[in-house]
Specification:
mainly alpha; 0% strand; globular
């Protein structure tokens, strides 16, 4: 199988300029992913109005994104093992760019759910593929640069959301998302060509057989990967919860204006972006274990402040502290899972993480009905603390 031999053996003698180019190209794909996804999210209200869907019907339709992503993530791990993460990244980039133009073309909740299933599949696929490529690059460079890629994703998301907010009143969803398709295909054509010309670094020796092919997961390795997946789940739970419930908490429980309430998630997202931008330096100084433990503890304290503070400004400060705390936990968890098991490890950890993001909003909703919304939001602090504890107990593996 020539493709298998070419993409899994890689090149252990890759020069520094080649690795630097690979880092730049992967950063572009991370940013593009965040840009396209955020561009779609800001047009959800307009798509709801266009389809005439009720809130419950829209909720079921939006579930298509999560279902498509979770189903595809494990499949993408296998495809990366067979064909390499670089070609799979490019193919998924094309599919993501094409599928984002489909939602405005639907006129019912059922049709919307169907196209979002395709969009979610492409989104989940590219996340596993470029994270797998990034894991191998981290191993080759022997530097903890994984947070910088996720910072690019966050920055792309902020740009995509900001642009979408600016043009929402003057450009129809159809033209906006079609524009994202054009931009996505153009960027993928340029960055994808560069990515396909760059040979992936060889997987670490501990993940290869004598013939250079990737090892199968042993029960112990799979167990460790699942542990890192649980860490990813705990942190992604918080991201999903704050995205959906943060603004409502500020407006409903603290009686703030809608504009200020909307700034709640912006504070969280900006703090997370800044935290990831400085994540490599933090990891080099503290190491992975201290970063996981300190991040989880910081997020727990921040979320307790954000959920229980009696004033708006204290709550906003709490959201920002939470973003800083959570910023580097997910990237470290995915990188460690990938270092242990390659693309399969990335797929497993990513699936756990996306499940956490999927479970967070409805779990908060149920707990808010049973208790109160501030009480429900403290579950984010609890799971952040759990992530810190797991990070400490796996310190011999994390290092």
């Amino acid at each position: 199988m020539p493709l298998l031999n070419k993409t899994t053996s890689g090149t252990s003698g890759a020069t520094s300029p080649e690795l630097t180019r690979l880092r730049v190209v992967l950063t572009v794909f991370f940013a593009l992913d965040g840009f396209i996804f955020a561009g779609w999210v800001v047009r959800i209200p307009a798509i709801k109005q266009q389809t005439g869907a009720s809130s419950s019907a829209l909720g079921l339709a939006l579930l298509g994104v999560s279902v498509g992503a979770v189903i595809t993530m494990m499949l993408t791990g296998r495809l990366c093992r067979l064909y390499g993460s670089h070609p799979v990244t490019v193919v998924c980039g094309v599919l993501l760019s094409l599928s984002v133009a489909l939602p405005p073309l639907t006129h019912s909740a059922a049709a919307l759910g169907g196209v979002l299933l395709l969009f979610g599949a492409a989104y989940g696929g590219i996340n596993v593929a470029f994270n797998s490529a990034a894991v191998d690059l981290v191993a080759a460079l022997k530097r903890p640069i994984m947070p910088s890629f996720h910072a690019a994703f966050s920055l792309g998301g902020m740009i995509g959301a900001g642009l979408g907010a600016l043009i929402a009143g003057s450009v129809s969803p159809t033209r906006h998302l079609l524009g994202l398709t054009v931009i996505g295909l153009a960027v993928t054509a340029v960055a994808g060509r560069a990515l396909l010309l760059l040979k992936p670094p060889a997987p670490p020796v501990e993940r290869r057989h004598d013939d250079g092919t990737s090892q199968r997961l042993t029960p112990r390795t799979r167990g460790l990967v699942i542990v890192f997946g649980l860490i990813a789940l705990c942190t992604a739970y918080g991201e999903g919860a704050l995205a959906d419930w943060g603004a409502l908490h500020l407006e409903q429980d603290l009686n703030t204006a809608p504009g200020v309430a909307a700034a709640g998630y912006s504070c969280f997202a900006l703090a997370m972006t800044l935290g990831r931008a400085t994540g490599t330096t933090l990891l080099e100084r503290l190491g992975r274990t201290r970063t996981l433990v300190a991040g989880g503890a910081t997020a727990a304290v921040g979320m307790l402040l954000g959920a229980l503070a009696p004033s708006v400004w204290a709550a906003l400060l709490g959201f920002a502290i939470t973003g800083i705390g959570l910023a580097n936990i997910f990237p470290v968890a995915v990188e460690r899972a990938g270092a242990l098991a390659g693309a399969s490890g990335v797929a497993i950890a990513s699936t756990f993480g996306y499940t956490g993001m999927l479970l967070g909003p409805p779990a908060i909703g149920f707990m808010a009905d049973w208790f109160t919304l501030p009480t429900a939001l403290t579950s984010v602090a609890l799971l952040a603390a759990v992530a810190a504890v797991i990070g400490f107990t796996t310190r011999r593996v994390v290092r």
